[in-house]
Amino acid sequence: MWKQAIEDTLQKTRANIERFGDLFPHVSENDIYHLNPNNEWTDGFWSGILWLSYQYTGEKVFQEAAQRTVASFKERLENNVALEHHDIGFLYSLSSKAQWILERDENARQLTLQAADVLMKRWRPKGQYIQAWGPEGDAANGGRIIIDCMLNLPLLYWAYEQTGNEKYKEVAIIHADLSRRYLVRGDDSSYHTFYFDQETGEPLRGGTHQGYQDGSTWTRGQAWGIYGFALSYRYTKNPLYLETAVRMARYFFERLPQDDVVYWDFNAPVNAETKRDSSASAIASAGTLEILEHLAADDANRAYLENGVQRSMTGLVKSYATIGKPDAQGFIERGSYSVRGGAAPDDYMIWGDYYYLEALLRLEKGFKGYWYE
């Protein structure tokens, strides 16, 4: 089943290389991807899909397309295009760092280190956190962290390993610890966002930007936490990070609906109109496969988490994948970008496509993605 699903993504990616040209897919409308000239936070995921496809097949069509995206990311960094946010890890881990991992291209390595320095500019020494969005001192966002950042921290861990500069790792660990303390709640659910006083770092309140309400659990946020804490464990070997990832994964899988693909928020009222988020299921699956690499064979959580991944991925392949629709641009249907904001609430998500393919390749070939070497 996994191999057939992978082959389907490869067929679609070949067609998308022709469709997209030098542009980058973001989210869809009426099953057509919105394209941009590399100015969205999501553009690394298209690059990641191309690198994964090349790694799996060895085909030059994927390699050359992926290399062109890295050239675009170099230009984006040089011109400082839409980099006023913390998603630098999403952008450069899956583009230039992927190229470094696969091809040992020194220019790609240097570009990735430069990107890590851009992310470090988000560090706020007074508050001791990485600011998610907006300029320093911004009234609305100056004191805000969000759980998505857990997937951006691997860029800093990697930069430390490459350079020996302790500051990269120190900042990543402080932010991970803060996220664990304030974004992960006592019942293993999560806030999407948390606010701190910009001057003192005093914790103020938890909230949401894309979830159902401030106290609810946005499923994609929970998935970011699962994968992000698992990766922080890989880099630091702090057992608290692995424990947190496991607890968040159990919370996620304990709440799977009948078809095993989650709704957009675990607390949203469920009826015939409730939106799904297939991308959350894909992220959680890839993240849990990372967790399983670190659990002992006799760990009490292993069987449960393995079953959760199998259920989620089988649900995606059988009920949400566009297998049998050769003209489809996306790999999995019914992702949601911002249900509350009315932005692509039931569409293709390029990050959903990326994590779906990464999870398939982990299952079929043991590939790891490009979050670490």
UniProtKB/TrEMBL annotation:
The keyword ATP-binding does not apply. The active site is at D87, D148. The keyword tRNA-binding does not apply. Substrate binds at D87, D148, G206, T208, R220, W224, S338. SUPFAM superfamilies: Six-hairpin glycosidases. GO terms for molecular function: chondroitin hydrolase activity. It comes from the Bacteria. Keywords: Hydrolase. InterPro entries: 6-hairpin_glycosidase_sf, 6hp_glycosidase-like_sf, Glyco_hydro_88, UG_Glycosaminoglycan_Hydrolase. It holds the Pfam family Glyco_hydro_88. One of its GO terms (biological process) is polysaccharide catabolic process. PANTHER family: HYDROLASE, PUTATIVE (AFU_ORTHOLOGUE AFUA_7G05090)-RELATED. Belongs to the glycosyl hydrolase 88 family. This is Glycoside hydrolase family 88 protein. The lineage of its organism: Bacteria, Bacillati, Bacillota, Bacilli, Bacillales.
